[in-house]
Design brief:
The structure holds two protein chains of two kinds.
Chain A (H helix, E strand, L loop, with lengths): L13 H29 L19 H9 L2 H32 L5 H10 L5 H14 L6 H9 L6 H12 L3 H9 L4 H12 L1 H17 L2 H6 L8 H12 L3 H36 L1
Helix pairs in contact in A: 1-13, 2-13, 3-6, 3-7, 3-10, 3-12, 4-7, 7-10, 8-9, 10-13, 12-13
Chain B lengths: L14 H34 L17 H8 L1 H33 L5 H13 L2 H11 L6 H8 L14 H26 L3 H9 L4 H28 L4 H6 L14 H11 L3 H26 L6
The chains are: A mainly alpha, B mainly alpha.
């Protein structure tokens, strides 16, 4: 747990201090209430759903058992894991290579290239989806196994945000280190791989987590492009299942909980890098 | 280029030429990606918008600007535009004000800062689909806990997502709740970067809390706030997942009250397969995002000297 430096000192009077913490914890409780309600509802038997008690009287894991029986949850989860994992590896490599080049090399067209990459952030996803879809359909890509995964994945193989983030970090690397390696006769790619990359490990960790979460939670494009049920990713699977479940809120909440739990585990493990990533983006924004 | 005899080793290139060569080698794959996956489809979408294109039909006649004259008269699209403007106007300021308020308080908390930050951050990493279904259940008119609470407080229960006037704000509230954690962390970072000596000097001059906030905190946070406004606006103008999952059977909400531009584009393209018309709609969305973003960057950024 890292604490950022506090710009203003903590309040001096004990009464104000208590008030500050009461306000902060009340806000946090309000923020977390939907999660608590989701988990509690997922443990209620159907008969209890509409009785409005906060705690389940007769808690049951029956909803979870049903979701796992009725749906391909494990398959969805593995699909999401595969798609998000491969996208993350690709983004890490290519975005850091591009960010490094834009930060540490001087060449004609450098600023133009950077601006063009950043400008892609302004293109709405909806606009790109139609031509992507037409191409995927014409290539009959989404019908066979490797093609289906590729068609879900390709839009996220690199990200403009990642190039921007990595460029910010490489800018602050001292040039002397790289020059020293050059004098030692190291090749340019080896310098990037063995000198520069290890020095920006925190940034890589942040980028990895953001990219992974972004792709794991992605909805619109997978919804459009997935044609066969066995290729559904977790959000698409959960949305379609919930849409069919009607008023079986216990099942819907169990499915939602199952979608949230893996993310919570990742967050618990990498909280520091996630927060640091935003902090560093914000500092230099 | 210096002339060099063929077969000479690359040593004869100047340092600058070698740098350029390496740079373009390293950038080759990323550049190709951005050209093929981002720029080319953008141009395709412009082209597509000039055709009556349906993936189901073999012929797709060129119809010039007909799609654009059609959208100029399409009342559903106008409704979607208006709703999208409402989402943005409600959501962006709300998440910035709330995020800044919590960040200011958190910034003064010594104990539990990391823990509290993590708690506020959780909704941000939750899959939107799951969050939206939970929201639907929370605000359900008959059985939702929110209405239970209202009844318990002797207040009239509300229809929320099934009411044409309340469905949009309830949807916007979900997005704000999900984004709040991100905003808080961003503002905490911005606040931490403000030199403390500035506050100390101002306090010696007898400035009170409000003066410190308007005179030091706000101006120095300007870059962070601008970043929030710009990225927030771009996201709200493309609102889709929350809306679809809050009203799975009727994606436009009660009387079309939650229909956004993105949802309407999706319905046209993948519900009715009118790809050409949908493409024209995306072109309009693109132009709107471009104008608003450039306008914001031009008029909101100020250079601060201290």
């Amino acid at each position: 747990m890292t604490s950022l430096p506090t710009p203003r000192p903590a309040p001096r009077s004990p009464a104000l201090k208590v008030l500050l913490y009461v306000a902060l914890f009340a806000g946090a409780a309000l923020t977390l209430f939907p999660f608590a309600w989701m988990l509690l509802t997922s443990l209620k038997p159907f008969a209890e759903l509409f009785t409005l008690g906060f705690l389940p009287q007769a808690p049951t894991t029956d909803n979870y058992a049903q979701v796992l029986q009725k749906t391909e949850y494990v398959r969805w989860f593995l699909n999401s894991l595969l798609v998000a994992g491969l996208s993350t590896l690709s983004v890490l490599f290519f975005d850091s290579l591009a960010g490094y080049t834009l930060a540490k090399f001087d060449f004609p067209g450098k600023n133009l290239i950077f601006i063009l990459i950043l400008a892609t952030l302004m293109i709405p996803t909806e606009m790109l989806i139609l031509p992507w879809y037409v191409s995927v359909v014409h290539l009959h890509l989404s019908l066979n196994t490797p093609g289906a995964y590729l068609s879900i994945m390709f839009p996220g193989l690199m990200s403009a945000f990642g190039v921007f983030l990595m460029r910010q970090f490489f800018e602050s690397l001292p040039n002397d280190l790289l020059e020293a390696a050059r004098i030692d006769g190291m090749g340019e790619f080896a310098i990037f791989r063995r000198v520069a990359l290890p020095l920006v490990r925190p940034a890589l960790a942040s980028l990895a987590i953001f990219t992974f979460l972004g792709n794991y939670n992605s909805f619109l494009w997978p919804l459009v492009v997935i044609q066969k049920p066995e290729f559904r990713t977790l959000p698409v699977g959960v949305a379609l299942f919930s849409g069919e479940a009607g008023t079986q809120w216990g099942l819907i909440m169990a499915a939602s909980s199952l979608a949230v739990i893996p993310v919570l585990i990742v967050f618990a493990m990498f909280q520091k890098q996630i927060i640091e990533g935003i902090v560093l983006t914000g500092m230099k924004g | 280029m210096t002339t060099r005899a063929p077969g000479l080793p690359r040593r004869s290139l100047s340092i600058r030429q070698r740098q350029t060569l390496t740079a373009y080698t390293f950038l080759a794959v990323p550049l190709l990606f951005f050209l093929i996956v981002r720029f080319a489809p953008t141009i395709s979408a412009f082209r597509l918008s000039l055709f009556k294109y349906s993936i189901l039909k073999d012929t797709s006649p060129f119809i010039g600007l007909d799609n654009y004259t059609r959208l100029a008269q399409d009342e559903n699209f106008h409704k979607a535009l208006l709703n999208t403007a409402l989402y943005t106007v409600i959501g962006v300021p709300a998440q910035i004000v709330l995020g800044l308020a919590v960040a200011l308080l958190l910034g003064r908390a010594r104990l539990f800062q990391g823990l509290l930050r993590a708690l506020y951050f959780l909704p941000y990493i939750t899959p939107v689909v799951a969050a939206a279904w939970v929201w639907q259940w929370l605000f359900s008119p008959q059985f939702g806990p929110v209405n239970t609470l209202l009844i318990w407080l002797h207040l009239p229960p509300q229809n929320f997502l099934t009411s044409p006037s309340q469905a949009l704000p309830t949807t916007a509230a979900l997005v704000v709740w999900q984004n709040l954690g991100f905003q808080i962390v961003l503002f905490l970072a911005g606040l931490a970067a403000i030199p403390r000596s500035l506050y100390e000097a101002a306090e010696l001059d007898g400035a009170g809390g409000w003066r410190l906030f308007t005179g030091i905190t706000l101006p120095l946070l300007n870059p962070t706030i601008v970043f929030s406004i710009v990225t927030g606006t771009i996201a709200y103008l493309q609102l889709f997942t929350q809306i679809v999952n809050l009203n799975f059977t009727d994606q436009g909400g009660p009387l079309g009250s939650t229909l956004s531009v993105a949802v309407y584009i999706y319905q046209m393209a993948f519900g009715r397969y009118e790809m050409g018309y949908a493409a024209a709609l995306t072109v309009v969305l693109f132009v709107i995002i471009l104008i608003i973003t450039l306008f914001q960057l031009r008029f909101l950024t100020r250079r601060i000297e201290y």
